[in-house]
Write a structure and sequence with these properties.
Elements: H1 2-22, E1 42-45, E2 51-56, E3 62-69, H2 83-94, H3 101-110, E4 114-119, E5 124-131, H4 135-147, H5 153-168, H6 174-187, H7 199-204, H8 207-217, E6 223-229, H9 233-244, E7 267-272, E8 278-286, E9 288-289, H10 295-306, H11 312-320, E10 326-331, E11 333-334, E12 340-348, H12 352-368, H13 373-390, H14 394-407, H15 413-423, H16 426-436, E13 443-448, H17 450-453, E14 463-465, H18 484-498, E15 508-518, E16 521-532, E17 537-544, E18 547-554, E19 557-562, E20 565-568, H19 571-583, H20 585-590, E21 597-605, E22 608-615, E23 621-625, E24 632-641, E25 646-660, E26 663-673, E27 676-688
Helix pairs in contact: 2-5, 2-8, 4-9, 10-15, 10-16, 11-12, 12-16
Length: 689
């Protein structure tokens, strides 16, 4: 009988689930949303100005403490952009004199605790997550790390290198490019709200900059402390007071946010990214502030426009028209300065303009016709239901309360928002769409393949092509003048030595083995390269441990074939291949008459005396010729190294020069990068065909 009842129950449950599964989304009845109840917050303030927010939460034997600091990168000058984030990173990674990095890491690991620090655009923070039993022991550690960081040079260098690595990769993906360049369109190229860290600004940062910024920011009058967890409020107060009273009051920082002088206008802008086959589009204009009385109405508008599977953009642009891989939109409202209104899409290159028109049409539709009562209620329900997950813990709710206080919003801002959203009507949505959205004066930005896009964008006006080349730091070295007449003579001697046959009639081919030092260890490659110096065409067949790769560069464009799949060569890799092609001894010999070559005198290198010839171009190339043979036995140049975010010296030592078919080339070549061997190439055969 028990088995029968269990089986019967199973069938009944399954039947109920099946019946529910057959219902459409708009036929399912949902229970009424529970009201949000803010946890009881205990507040108190110390004489030095620190305000505390305490919320007990007995669910787990943990205590979380967060210090919010009134500071931010808005205070940075454009010449040292990146100073604040570096400060926030090295405060923790470098430790303090009492708790240097290794000691601190070991202590926290043994206690299963965490201390972190960071500084963003409008605030900084230091946080600690710890077991209840260790809170009193580790709180002084937090205070010491926060107040007495030692900022060791090696940790500063590491943080700066990590920042430079991020800079070197910032043009890899379309989304980050689009968001970065769109902010420049809205706020201005040199605006504090749109600036980027650059290699040069990172190089400008000194340890003294970090110390000065830290000492000015991390004072009591700039601090708010939030504590949640398993504690007794009256018992924890004296512990907090004892430790945080040690922090000097200091002078409070007033964050100043520059006014934005924005003019509504329609523009069309393109970032050419040849290695993609789809367009990433952003369009929009300046947004608003969180303090706007229409904030709740705008949040509902956001949801109607792009708030999930049932939103206008998703249903029309993606589902009905099939124009999008992804589609999105939002009227942004910031706390301290205006946000941006953006709508965007990822679409195939050939449907770029069609997708832009579809988005603009949906924005205009919001202005021209009210949403239905059913659509509005569904949207409001979705929004209010999502709040359950945004504030599903006392810690999250307390953090929101602190954030509101920090931004100067009312204490009951959250409850006000909930009530105001419930009161939004179809007329309200149409009203704010008409009042705040300007589809007729939207700035349009497309990041995509210009060749595939073609002339689609011209319908929106004159296309502004945006250059996203990453500025590279210079060496700032004074360059002495040389003798161009003697330089031409030495290049003639080199050409006669490299091309005793007088030139190349056909394609130049060589086969070689190449040993390359990588961060993962040595890698051995087999290479066959075919070069046409007249047409500047290059084909390299490379055998690697992962498989064979064929790289082709022709007419300034590059492709890669691997595993039967052909794809465009990333621009950075294509440029590197072409640079090596233009530096080859054979290319230099063939094109010697068009080069700006200067004789710099005799120079000692590798224990020998060489004739130094400098070739002036985008990258200065130094050739050291054997005065007897005229062969370039040593070559040097400076090259940007994204791994270190600066220029490295590359030296190429060429030996075992061998002649075949009227061409002399080195069969042994060793490449040094900053005096470390980076590759060794051994050629086995070469010919002209």
């Amino acid at each position: 009988m028990k088995k029968f009842i269990a089986v019967l129950t199973l069938f009944l449950v399954a039947g109920t689930q099946f019946a529910t599964a057959q219902q459409k989304w708009n036929e399912i009845e949902y229970p009424e949303i529970n009201n949000f109840e803010m946890p009881e917050v205990e507040m108190f303030e110390l004489d030095n100005g620190i305000t505390f927010y305490l919320v007990e939460d007995k669910e787990l034997p943990l205590i979380d403490l967060t210090v919010i600091v009134r500071t931010g990168s808005v205070l940075d000058g454009n010449d040292i952009a990146g100073r604040t984030s570096t400060t926030g990173t090295v405060m923790r990674s470098g430790g303090s004199e009492s708790y240097p990095d290794s000691t601190l890491n070991e202590l926290l690991e043994n206690k299963a605790a965490r201390i972190e620090s960071g500084i963003g655009f409008t605030s900084g923070s230091v946080s600690m997550d710890v077991l209840k039993e260790d809170f009193e022991e580790l709180l002084p550690v937090l205070i010491d790390v926060m107040q007495n960081p030692i900022f060791p040079e090696d940790k500063i260098d590491l943080a700066k290198t990590q920042s430079k690595t991020s800079i070197s990769r910032r043009n890899d993906e379309q989304g980050p490019i689009a968001n970065r360049e769109f902010r420049k369109l809205i706020y201005g190229e040199n605006s504090v709200y749109a600036r980027n860290t650059e290699y040069e600004t990172i190089d400008n940062i000194t340890r003294d900059d970090l110390i000065e910024f830290h000492d000015r920011s991390f004072v009591a009058s700039n601090m708010i402390v939030g504590v949640t967890g398993d504690f007794d409020t009256e018992s924890i107060k004296p512990i907090l007071e004892e430790q945080f009273s040690k922090i000097p009051a200091g002078t409070p920082i007033e964050l100043e946010f520059p006014e934005i002088d924005y003019t509504f206008e329609q523009t069309i802008n393109l970032v050419d990214k040849p290695d993609v086959n789809q367009s990433y589009v952003l369009l929009g204009h300046i947004g608003g502030m969180r303090s706007n009385p229409d904030y709740a109405k705008l949040q509902v508008l956001n949801r109607v426009l792009s708030g999930g599977f049932s939103s206008r953009l998703f249903q029309v642009v993606r589902t009905d028209l099939g124009l999008a891989y992804a589609v999105f939109g939002n009227y942004g409202s910031n706390n301290f300065y205006p946000g941006t209104f953006t709508a965007g899409v990822m679409t195939q290159s050939e449907t770029t303009a069609e997708a832009i028109d579809a988005i603009l049409e949906q924005i205009e539709r919001l202005q021209n016709e009210p949403v239905t009562d059913e659509e509005l209620e569904q949207t409001k329900d979705q929004f209010l239901n999502s709040l359950v997950f945004r504030y599903d813990s006392k810690a999250k709710i307390l953090n929101q309360r602190i954030s509101n206080d920090y931004a100067g919003l009312p204490q009951d801002a959250f409850n006000q928002l909930v009530e105001e959203i419930r009161d939004v009507t179809p007329a309200d949505v149409q009203e704010v769409a008409e009042k705040y959205l300007r589809p007729d004066a939207s700035q349009i930005l497309v990041v995509g393949n210009a060749e595939e896009i073609g002339d689609q964008l011209q319908k929106y006006g004159e296309v502004n092509e945006i250059d996203i080349t990453i500025p590279q730091p210079g060496d700032n070295e004074e360059v002495a003048a040389g003798n161009r007449t003697s330089g031409a003579e030495w290049m003639g001697r080199m050409a006669a030595a490299v091309l005793p046959g007088g030139g190349i009639d056909g394609e130049f081919i060589f086969e070689a083995s190449n040993e390359v030092n990588t961060p993962q260890g040595k890698m051995n490659l087999d290479v066959k390269q075919t070069a046409n110096f007249e047409d500047e065409r290059l084909v390299s067949e490379v055998g690697t441990p992962m498989g064979n790769i064929t790289m082709r560069v022709e007419d300034g464009e590059g492709t890669m074939l691997m595993g039967g799949n052909e794809q465009p060569m990333p621009p950075a890799q294509r440029d590197q291949v072409l640079a090596e092609f233009y530096r080859s001894h054979v290319y230099l010999a063939i094109n010697r008459e068009s080069l700006d070559a200067e004789y710099m005198g005799m120079a000692d290198m590798e224990g020998e005396s060489y004739a130094h010839v400098r070739i002036n171009d985008d990258t200065t190339l130094n050739l050291y010729l054997d005065p007897e043979t005229g062969l370039p036995e040593v070559t040097t140049y400076r090259q940007f190294n994204p791994q270190v975010g600066g220029n490295s010296t590359v030296k190429i030592v060429s030996t075992n020069w061998t002649e075949a078919d009227g061409v002399v080339i080195p069969y042994e070549t060793t490449v040094y990068t900053d005096d470390e061997v980076s590759s060794v190439t051994t050629i086995t055969t070469h010919s002209v065909e």
